[in-house]
Each structure stands twice: as C-alpha cells, then as structure tokens.
Amino acid sequence: MKKTFILFYLGVLITLAHNSVLAQIPYQINGKWENGTGKKLSLKLLSAGNMTGISIDSATVAPDGTFSLEGTVKEMGYGTLSDANGKYQGYRVIFFDGNPIELQLADTIIQMGKQKKNGIVFHLTKGNKEQKASQEILRFFSDHFIRSFNNAFASVALERKNNTQHTTDSLNAVITQIEKADKEGIANFFQTYSDCLAAPFFMEMNMLKELPGSELQSWFNSLSDKAKASPKGKEIEDIIRKINLLSPGATAPNFELTTPDGKQLSLKDFRGHIVLIDFWASWCAPCLGEMPNLKAIYDKYHTKGLEVIGVSMDNSTTAWTKAIEREVLPWHHASSLKGMQHCPVAESYQVLAIPKLYIIGKDGKIIEKDLRGKALADKIEEIIIKNTSNQ
Which of 174, 180, 247, 165 is nearest to 210 (CA)? Predict the structure, then answer.
C-alpha cells in the first residue's frame, strides 16, 4: 500500500512537471547590429495591457555584430527589445509565440522635438505574421497616446482661457478627431490581422479602455476561431461579458464612498433622480477637457432633477480637493482615494480608463454610458424632456 502511494505520488509530480514544461513558451531571437559591437540589448516582457515592462533577458553584441537571446516565458504574450542602457531610442515589439525570429539593426538619428538623439532601426528579416501584428500593437498605442496627450492639454488651455460655447464646440471637435483616427486605426488592424493570436492582445492594449461593450463584442466576433479560442482570446471574451452586464437596462451597482468633508455618499440615496456618474481624476487631462460640457449640462438641468456624482480615481486628498476648487465643480463628489487600479467602485463599473460616464435613471437602472460631448448633452436633454412629460 505504501509503495503504491509513493508510485502514485511520483506519477503526479512527473505529470505536473511535464505540464509545467509544456506551459512554457520558448523564444529564440538572433540578429546583427551594424557597428553595435559591445552594446547591450534588453528583452522586456509586457503584461496586463500596459507598458510596464519586466526585464527577462539581455545580450551583448559580439565583435562580429551578432547577438542571440534564448529562453522561455510562462505564457504567450508580447514584449520589447531595446538598448539596455537607454542611450539609443527605439524598440522592436516581440511576440512570444514559440517561433524564432531574426532582426537586422542599424543606427539612426531620431528627431525628438528640437533635439536629435541616437536611435535604432529594427528590420525583421525572419518572422511570421504574428511579429508584424505585434508591431502594430504599440504603434497604435503610441499614436493614440500622442494624439490624446497633445490635444487634451491644448483643449484644457483653451477652456481656461475662454470658457464659451465656442470653446465647448472646439473641445468636442478634438474628441471627435481622436475617435475618428482611432476607429480608422482599429479597422486597418483587423482588416489585416484578425486571424492572428496577437489580435486579442491588441484588444487588451488598445480597445478595452476606450470602446463600449457593443463595439468590443462586434470586433471580437470578427476574430478568427483560433484567436477567440486562445487563452488571451478567452480572457478578453470574459471581460467583454462583464462590461456588457452593465449595458442599458441593467441595475447600476450600488456603492458607498467618502465625500471631501468625510461623510458617506451612497448611490441608492439618489433614487428618484436622474444621476450622471462621472469617473474622473485631477491628473486626467481628457476628464478636465470634458468639464465645460458637464458644467453646461448641470447648470441647465439640475433644477429639473439631474444630479451629478463625480467619482474620483485620485489617491491624494489634496490633489482631489484642489482640482474640485480649481475647476469649480458644483456637484456631489466622492472617492475611495485608492486610485483606479484598486478602487472597488471602478472595478464594479468596469472603469478601465477615464473619463467614463454612466447615466442612471430614477429607478436605479443604467440608461446609457460612455457618451461625451454633444452626444451626452443631447441624451440628457432627451431624458429630462421624457421625464417631465410623464409627470
């Protein structure tokens, strides 16, 4: 009996070890860097849909200009290859799918504002379609970030200079411009790479934080069966399912948060009112850019039953309260002061990026979400008129 147990136990260990080995994804990256002798390259793993990289490997360029990196990662995903010392700008996105790749590197000069810096150009000389798709993941991310950053800060500066209807229209035009460019970029990606395993990673990086559940579902449906059935594909599908649970008609999750004066604010206390929940933060330029529109909506409809609750994703009381005072935001405010990553209300409302807005009806059910600018103002007007006529 004892012998049988030992053999069984050994069998379990062997099986677990075998499955552990199978779960590893190998990588093999070979290349040549012209004039790169002695320089060091760093391989980083990216995860959780963000740019926070974890160094997993490095290589020093040999006298003949060649370099090689080999190893394994725990699961399929993507990372970056770049200069380890930060002296050279630029990187190559690597998709860890178990297939080898070869690269050719060359020095270049990159214009960054008024400065010129040394950079690296990465040419893929051997690699599959997945490697090309992965390159587009961060290309899109970078383009969107630059558009949003530059336009949002320009919009805030404009709003503070001249708070007029013309300013509000200008802000709405900026938002529309960004959304149009993003939609075109997404469409171009899916037209070429919807059959790739990298496609669900593109959705994680560039779409979950920006698009409503209905659009996400539509794009997910366009993926190949192979991409949908992949581990990341299944993960994205589950996230979209949770987002869609907050579709119009669903009961808005109740919450209790602390106000700036230390009191408790509960959503259920606002039953009988139309409630606009604005997830924002003092550091969020697009959020501040939307404030003129929210102020106009509040001023017009507050006396007709509209309440606005600003739920801050800040983790600093000072930054939060100063922003309220500086922007002159007259509505209700509350926060967990745990930031977006750890706020329980952000989790229950699937707040992956801000600004994010929900319109809640008098019965506590979600009427609409993810509207901004003129579309938000028009929807609030429609709801108020409907409720007034029913009284």
Answer: 180
Measured CA distances, 281 to 105, 126, 192, 335 (Å): 41, 45, 36, 10
What is the rounded distance in angstroms from the CA atom of residue 185 to the CA atom of residue 101? 26
CA atoms of 178 and 23, how far apart (whole Å): 40
The CA-to-CA distance between both ends of the chain, in Å, stands at 79
% the chain with pLDDT above 90: 59
Backbone φ, ψ for residue 330 (5° rounding):
-85, 0
- pTM to 2 decimals? 0.68
Question: How far apart, in whole angstroms, are the C-alpha atoms of residue 365 and residue 44?
Answer: 44
SS3 of residue 79 by DSSP: strand
Higher model confidence: residue 181 or residue 161? Answer: 181
Kindly state the greatest CA–CA separation across the chain.
85
Residue 50: per-residue pLDDT? 61
CA–CA gap between residue 334 and residue 310 (Å, rounded): 6
Distance CA 26, CA 140 (A): 27
Alpha-carbon distances, residue 315 vs 123, 153, 261, 388 (angstroms) = 42, 22, 16, 39
pLDDT tens-place string over residues 60-86: 999 999 999 999 999 898 899 999 998
Contacts of 307 (CB under 8 A, 6+ apart): 270, 273, 274, 275, 276, 331, 332
| Contacts of 186 by beta carbon, 8 Å cutoff, 6+ apart | 140, 206, 207, 219
Radius of gyration, CA atoms only, the chain:
25
In one-letter notation, the amino acid at residue 262 is: G
Distance in angstroms (rounded) separating the CA atoms of residues 257 and 270: 14
Q: Which two tokens stand for residue 280?
A: 């924002």
